[in-house]
Every structure is written in structure tokens, then in C-alpha cells.
Specification:
single chain, Rossmann fold, four-stranded antiparallel sheet, four-stranded parallel sheet, 52% helix, globular, RNA-binding
RNA sequence: GCCCCUGUAGCUCAACUGGAUAGAGCAACGGACUUCUAAUCCGUAGGUUGGGGGUUCGAGUCCUCCCGGGGGCGCCA
């Protein structure tokens, strides 16, 4: 139970007393801290619904609240706001309860959902590039938050290894190196080493894709190669496995550098065996129909403002495209994984695609009503010119290069600040990496998921302002106090009722953690945690400035303050953890 | 052409889904260190939320019309 929830229940009961819905009792942190600590706006909404005057309702609710223990203030303001504050004793009580709770006041979900988070979306033949960055960072943070929230989370990068792109690559390689054993009839033994490197693939793929646009004969060959691969040609499969491996190797390295992990590493190809039976079912059920030689599913619905192109289930040449794979993947996730909620953390340009897939999945009965599918889209990461982030030559930037850039920047910042100067080289390097990743992730996650934002290396890596490094630094300073206290054998004790404004504000802030986590899950919006972490650091720094813990002479107060510092650190570290950011022990 | 997203301080971004006086960071200016890591903290200045109209006790948020920016539209992912 959190303080806000407790207050909401008190207010809700007061509304219920008046014959009104208890949900009007929702209590929020005050927007006018000079007036009160909390507020409830429900009286005005209740007035609209019931036809009774808002101030009368508010007055009666406030009166009831005033009679409850721990409530220091409950009064009506303006058109019907109810301003509420609690006593310092009650605050200390809540603080002690929350600070000693490993979950910091957040209650794990009573009915845990199985949540599949589909993010990152690496592809064969492509090293990950900046375009994958947001999906990876946001998806990872959402997965961490839902897991903390008590849900069963399954993280799956959904490796793109099966569509027409594979046919394009095979057709192009067959043309370039026709003597390779993979293309010879009757050969069944193939080399262990890949005939192509990732760089080869990165060169071949864009050229082949561009050529297929103009060269219909080549495109046809690629389509045939796709079908032949999907039907299991041993040579094609062997070559395909090599291409997968070299791609995956590089991608796993990038994920490791980012500190991002997955529970599954499934690709589109892994659902291939589910496709044919599924397609058959859809055909038999009359959900799929034939059109221009292909099998399609119409996804128009009543009330549409536009025409929707149908989903292509099976192409004219008998190949399966990514929509089909996505449908089979839903089938798998629902039936085998027991998914209740599937979050697709994929950029906004694919929103039409997901609308089609979700509609088709419902229509075809693959996803029953109880399963929610959601395209958790996000905006573009732009360069300083406000256009999508590119190299100076206009090419895409590899994710690995971005990581190197930001870690270099972090190293430079540490030098400038003379931080971590005399540490062992290995530790110093680890700190630089942690700081760089924090800069990168926080710079992204602090923005609203749906807005575009400008990637600014200098700004993100600064120790000043709203940045990841600033938060790490703030946390490290707290760790330093705790270490010093231990050296001097000063023990933390129970939190005492606050007497200093900065202390009270810090406690009030820390008590809001549970609601921030819930809101972040509801809105799928890690920026709420990011913002909260920044405010936590600010609230602590103000307290730190005003209240000198270790030199405090009143022993009970000193022990309480030390416990407050420890609680602040726990809140900050957990918030950062939800963002995928690590805090060094020192720097 | 049709549909979706978007426009907030000089710059980069928030705003808990309709609540009070729209908030941060950076940049600018002014203050605070014999003190637990000052890369910190406090203060000042900065706004017709692209524009018009509407809905209501109350609009950055909802509806509508303009203007600007981005994206997507049948066998790529």
C-alpha cells in the first residue's frame, strides 16, 4: 500500500458516503505545493455527473477527511479542489514502512500478465544501426518495468531471418559466386566457415534490394530463391545459416555492450512450421481469399475512414512474407507462450502494417479477445540538423560506432572533471562505459516515446543538467556518504518526523515511487521514470545541501537522516535500473 | 490524392489523458564552498502552447477549419 493509495481510499470512502462513486477519490501529488501536499479533483467531476454543487461535495468530503488520523489538512479551494496534507508523524510512519520494503512501496501485480515484449528487431545482413537504438532501449526499459511490476515478461528480439530479403541475398550471391557448393545440385556437405562476412552482406543487400526495384527478372529469381529456401533446399539452408550466424554474432555484441538481454532469441524462421497449417486453417475458414493469384486477408472494418490494403498471406509465387510470419508468431505467442499482452516496440512507420496484422489476427481467431496486441511506436532519433541521424556522407551509422562515440565522450568528461583519476585502468574503463551507456539511454528515455528527438553527444554526456551521468554522479555521492558512515560506525536508524522543509519534500517525493511505476506501465512511457529519477536526485541534493548528515549531533536524527539517504539511493538506483542504467560504486 | 503523427521559452524537451499561476535542462545574469564528491545548490529573466472558431465551471490536452513539418499507402522489412 502506498500513501497516495491510502489517501485515495480515504477520499473514496468519503465520496461513497455521499452516494457517489469511490473512484472520484483519486488523490494526486499537489500541483501547488505551497498550498498542500496532495490534492483531489474528483468533486468537480462528481458534480457534473450528479448535478450537485461541486463545492458542497468537496466540503463534505474534506470534512470527513479531516476526521481521519494522520490528516493534517483537508480544505476546499477554488471551484472544488480538495487540498490535503498529512502530519509529520504520519509521514515518518509511511517513510519507515516504505524504506524498509524491498519493493519501495510498490505492490506486485495481483493478477500477473504474460507480457511478450518484441523489440530491437535485428535483421540478417544488417549490423544494427541507429535505427535500432530506440526500439532496443525503450523495449528493454518497458520489459524491465513490467518485470518489476510483477508480470511474467518474455523478451524476444524477433530476428528478421525469413522473408524476401533472404531470397534477394541468395540470388545475388548465386550470381556473384555461382561455383559455391550451396548452389550445386546433389551436394549435401557444406563448409563450416561462412563464404560471406557481415560486411559482404551489408554491401550485397542494399544493392540487391535496389536492383530488384528495376530488374524484374532478377526480382523474380529472388522470389523463387525465397520459396526454395522456405521449402527447405539443403544448400540454401546451409548458406542461410551462415548468413544468420555472422549477423547474429555482431548483434549479440551490440546488445551486450548496451546491457540488453533477451529471454528468447527467436527469428521469423522459427515459426515457419506453423505457417502452412495456419494458412490452411485461414483458407478453410474463408478468412483468406484468392486475389490476383495471391492469398490475402481483407482487413477493412466498418467505420473506416480510409481503404485498407489487404494483408498478403501468400504471394503469387507461393512465398510467405513478413505479415504471414507475424501472424504465425502471434499464433505461437498466444498458444505456446500464453501471452496476454504483446507489445511491439517498433518505429511508427510500421503502424499500418501492425493494424493489418492485428486485425487479421482477430479476424482469423489467432488472437482471442483477451489477448491485447499493441504497436508501441516511437519517434525518430534525429541529428543536430533535425533530420534522421546519418553520417556526414548520408550513410547509416552503426550502433557499435554510436556506442564507441558515446563511451569516448564519457571518458573525456571524466578526464575534464578529474573523476576516477587514480583508479585502476580496468575500473576506470568500466566506469567510462557505464557512464556512456547511461548518457545514451537517459538521453533517449527522458523524451516522450512518441516524439522525435535530437541526438546530442555533448549534451547527453554532460554531468550537468538532466542527464544520465548527472544521476550516476548523484547516486555515487550518496554511496560515498554511506561508506563514510560505515567507516565511522554510524548506523542508520528509524526515520524521524521531518523538521526541515527539504527533508519533508524528499520524503514526500520518495513516497510517490509506486505510482510512477504504475503510470509508466499503463502509458508504456519510460520517460515518467526518467523524469522521476531526475527529480529524486534533485530532491536529495537539496536535502544534502541543507542537512549535513555525518556532522549532525542529535544521534537519532543523524541515524534517521542516514536511513533517508539510504532510501533515496535505493529509489534512485531502482529507477535507473528500470531504465537499464547501472550506477558505479564510485567515480 | 487519401490516412496517420506532429507544432509548447533563444535551443533541447516535459506536462500523470479535462484541473488551479504551462514546467525542467541548456545557454544568459546574480548569489552560496573551513562542511559528507561544488560536475552541487539557491535566485533573476525568458510564453498569445502555430493561427481562427467551438464544447464547459475550467482546454496545451476534446471538436472543427486553416498554415507549417514528418511519415505511410497491394505481394520489401
Amino acid at each position: 500500500m502506498s500513501l497516495l493509495r491510502h489517501l485515495s481510499e480515504l477520499a473514496g470512502a468519503a465520496f461513497a458516503d455521499l452516494g457517489l462513486d469511490a473512484s472520484y477519490g483519486q488523490v494526486l501529488p499537489s500541483q501547488r505545493p505551497e498550498l498542500s501536499q496532495f490534492q483531489c479533483n474528483g468533486a468537480m467531476a462528481a458534480a457534473k455527473k450528479s448535478g450537485r454543487p461541486p463545492q458542497e461535495i468537496a466540503g463534505q468530503v474534506a470534512e470527513r477527511l479531516r476526521s481521519r488520523p494522520g490528516v493534517a489538512l483537508a480544505e476546499v479551494a477554488g471551484p472544488g479542489f480538495i487540498n490535503i496534507s498529512v502530519t509529520d508523524d504520519a509521514l515518518a510512519e509511511w517513510a519507515n514502512r516504505t524504506a524498509s520494503d524491498p519493493r519501495l512501496g510498490h505492490e506486485a501485480a495481483a493478477d500477473p500478465l504474460t507480457v511478450v515484449v518484441d523489440y530491437a528487431g535485428p535483421n540478417v545482413a544488417k549490423a544494427m544501426h541507429v535505427g535500432h537504438l530506440r526500439a532496443t532501449i525503450i523495449g528493454d526499459s518497458l520489459a524491465r518495468t513490467f518485470a518489476f511490476g510483477g508480470h511474467k515478461v518474455i523478451r524476444d528480439p524477433h530476428f528478421g531471418d525469413w522473408g524476401f530479403q533472404m531470397g534477394l541475398l541468395i540470388a545475388a550471391i548465386a550470381e556473384e559466386q555461382p561455383d559455391l557448393p550451396y548452389f550445386q545440385e546433389g551436394v549435401t556437405e557444406f563448409p563450416d566457415t561462412s563464404p560471406v562476412t557481415l560486411d559482404d552482406l551489408q554491401r550485397i543487400y542494399p544493392a540487391a534490394a535496389a536492383r530488384a526495384q528495376e530488374d524484374e527478372e532478377f526480382a523474380e529469381r529472388a522470389r523463387m530463391a525465397t520459396v526454395r529456401l522456405q521449402q527447405g533446399d539443403p544448400g540454401y539452408r546451409a548458406l542461410w545459416r551462415h548468413m544468420k550466424n555472422v549477423s547474429e554474432q555482431s548483434q549479440r555484441a551490440d546488445f551486450a555492450a548496451l546491457g540488453v538481454e533477451f529471454d528468447l532469441w527467436y527469428g521469423e524462421s522459427d515459426v515457419h512450421d506453423l505457417i502452412e497449417p495456419m494458412v490452411e486453417r485461414l483458407k478453410e475458414a474463408g478468412v483468406a481469399e484468392e486475389s490476383e493469384g495471391a492469398w490475402i486477408i481483407r482487413v477493412d472494418e466498418e467505420g473506416d475512414k480510409r481503404e485498407w490494403p489487404p494483408l498478403i498471406l501468400e504471394s503469387r509465387t507461393g512465398g510467405f512474407l513478413y505479415s504471414t510470419t507475424d501472424l504465425a508468431t502471434i499464433d505461437f505467442r498466444v498458444r505456446d507462450l500464453g501471452a496476454d499482452l504483446i507489445l511491439y516496440v517498433v518505429d511508427r512507420r510500421q503502424s499500418d502494417h501492425f493494424t493489418q496484422v492485428f486485425r487479421a489476427a482477430r479476424k482469423g481467431g489467432l488472437a482471442p479477445e483477451g489477448v491485447a496486441m499493441e504497436h508501441t511506436w516511437f519517434g525518430t532519433m534525429n541529428g543536430p540538423d533535425g533530420k534522421p541521424f546519418k553520417t556526414r556522407e548520408g550513410g547509416v551509422i552503426r550502433l557499435g560506432d554510436v556506442i564507441n562515440m558515446i563511451v569516448d565522450a564519457a571518458r573525456k568528461r571524466l578526464d575534464e572533471a578529474h573523476l576516477a583519476e587514480d583508479y585502476p585502468e580496468e575500473e576506470r574503463e568500466r566506469i567510462a562505459h557505464q557512464v556512456g551507456i547511461a548518457a545514451l539511454k537517459f538521453g533517449d528515455l527522458v523524451n516522450n516515446r512518441t516524439s522525435d528527438y535530437v541526438f546530442d553527444l555533448d549534451r547527453f554526456s554532460s554531468f550537468e543538467g538532466k542527464t544520465g551521468p548527472y544521476l550516476q554522479y548523484a547516486a555515487v555521492r550518496v554511496k560515498s556518504i554511506l561508506r563514510k558512515a560505515e567507516e565511522r560506525a554510524i548506523e542508520p536508524g528509524p526515520l524521524v518526523p521531518p523538521t526541515v522543509p527539504e527533508e519533508r519534500q524528499l520524503i514526500l517525493h520518495l513516497l510517490q515511487f509506486p505510482e510512477v511505476v504504475d503510470r509508466t506501465m499503463e502509458l508504456r512511457a519510460p520517460n515518467h521514470v526518467a523524469e522521476y529519477a531526475f527529480e529524486t536526485a534533485g530532491a536529495f541534493n537539496r536535502f544534502y545541501d541543507t542537512c549535513h548528515i555525518l556532522s549532525e549531533e542529535d544521534a537519532a536524527r543523524r541515524a534517521g537522516w542516514l536511513a533517508l539517504a539510504r532510501w533515496s539511493l535505493a529509489t534512485l538506483e531502482l529507477s535507473l535500473h528500470l531504465l537499464g542504467i547501472e550506477v558505479p560504486d564510485r567515480m
